[in-house]
């Protein structure tokens, strides 16, 4: 992974100043989401692996240093950057775990210039991937195990890297397949695809298009039936399916119109033709609320294709994430800005059954019956274990999803108020507040 310049300029400005002044004390930064978007009751942590890879490879090559010199960084700064590596440690919530607002997704502790340079990349990766994982998890909840979910977002995501991340993350949260062939190859996902309206329009008749496609791709034929007249398309799909004897491998795809009514009518037509095994696949700008509505109406659908609204998390396309200094040189620090007050000190989240969380200090003892969410994943600039697998992240997610309280499973559930705060952390807040107030007045 290239790119020590994958950062904001102000990170380099601060880092060069720290290095010039010999400020090498260990700093701890906490990365978390301040508050959940409207309609969200939880988040799903995702993206830490890319962050660890970037930190391990953090160094400036000669071409990058030449560019920085051209920007005006002097020889002292250039020499300091030349020798810079990430030498610190990272604590992080494992990918796939469910978390809440104000709970650290990751904490970075290292000499301050190194930790400062990590901010932009870590925020970029953890914020986006966590947002998408949280959206996809809501789709899983809406599907309630009654329909397969297929990711169709490649053409609408905001860039190739985003498309790859979306495909991987939807696989993590239990989607059955992705349309993204490279992502399927790279991550061991199931690829899925049907046909476009252009394919049907390229043939003289819809019937001929269906027959050609099914003949050429008999193993998994899904007929897109709404190019001209949806129910007429279903009738043609029935005819070709029976003619070629592919009922056990066929499906019809509804991509427009009143999907509930059309699914009912398509199911009736298929069943009356003796094609009970032919599945019904729906798509067309759908999200978790559409799934809930269709299933709530009893629509006989078997699978849902989800693209645009999922791939960009359309109703909540960003998270109010932050990367804040919480300790420098053993001195707890905090921010007192209105609406953006931070908690000082290196932290840990202690989880009790029922996802009752306590936000405390990393070095306090775990309360009885709790588990510690943040794990030590990097020390001295190197991972403490192999890169996490998609399967291990999936297991984390499935375990937490099964434990998610009923009160948080509804798509309109109110976000919890946040974790409780330990008495030790409360005491540190009082101490750090007094220090900050003195600093502000001096």
Q: What is this structure's SSE topology?
A:
Layout: H1 9-20, E1 26-33, E2 43-44, H2 48-56, H3 62-71, H4 75-82, E3 89-92, E4 98-99, E5 106-111, H5 112-117, H6 119-143, E6 148-151, H7 160-172, E7 177-178, H8 181-187, H9 197-201, H10 206-216, E8 221-224, H11 230-244, E9 250-254, H12 259-272, E10 279-282, H13 288-296, E11 303-306, H14 308-311, E12 321-328, E13 331-332, E14 347-352, E15 356-361, E16 371-372, E17 375-379, E18 382-383, H15 390-403, E19 420-421, H16 423-441
Parallel strand pairs: 6-7, 6-11, 8-9, 9-10, 10-11, 15-19
Antiparallel strand pairs: 1-5, 1-12, 2-4, 3-5, 3-17, 12-13, 14-15, 14-16, 17-18
Helix pairs in contact: 1-4, 2-6, 3-4, 6-7, 6-13, 7-8, 10-11, 11-12
Largest sheet: 7 strands, antiparallel
CATH class of the largest domain: Alpha Beta
Largest sheet, spatial ordering of strands:
13-12-1-5-3-17-18
Number of helices: 16
The CATH architecture assignment of the largest domain turns out to be Alpha-Beta Barrel
Number of domains: 2
Uncertain segments are none
Estimate the mean pLDDT confidence.
96
Number of strands: 19
- Kindly report how far apart the N and C termini lie: 44 Å
CATH topology of the largest domain: nicotinate phosphoribosyltransferase
Q: By helix and strand content, what is the structural category?
A: alpha/beta
Helix content, binned percent: 40-55%
Fourth-level CATH superfamily of the largest domain: nicotinate phosphoribosyltransferase
Radius of gyration: 26 Å
